[in-house]
Amino acid sequence: MAVVIEELDVHTQPPPAAPALSDAASSAPPAIDEAALQAALQREAWRLERLLAD
Questions:
Q1: Residue 18 has what pLDDT?
Q2: How many other C-beta atoms lie within 10 A of the C-beta of residue 9?
Q3: Cα angle at 19 between 28 and 35, to 5 degrees?
Q4: Which of 1, 3, 31, 42 could form a disulfide with 16 if both were Cys (CB 3.0 to 4.6 A apart)?
Q5: Are the C-beta atoms of residues 16 and 43 closer than 8 Å to each other?
């Protein structure tokens, strides 16, 4: 049985960027920043996806 190995073109996805804080968010008292939390969750999901892909 012949085995053929072809070259693969592999592309990696860059991690999601952290969102910039708006003036309203930066002047607010320390509380849960939903945008920052969502961005952190997206980065973690991306990291886990990359780990599972390797």
A1: 66
A2: 4
A3: 55
A4: 42
A5: yes
Tokens 């008292």 sit on residue: 29
Phi, psi of 29 (to 5 degrees): -65, 155
The maximal CA–CA distance of the chain, rounded, in angstroms, is: 68
Q: What is the pLDDT of residue 41?
A: 93
Helices and strands (H, E) in the chain, number of each type: 2, 0
Nearest one of 3, 9, 33 to 21, comparing CA atoms: 33
- Local mean pLDDT, 10-residue blocks, the chain (54 residues): 78 71 58 85 91 82
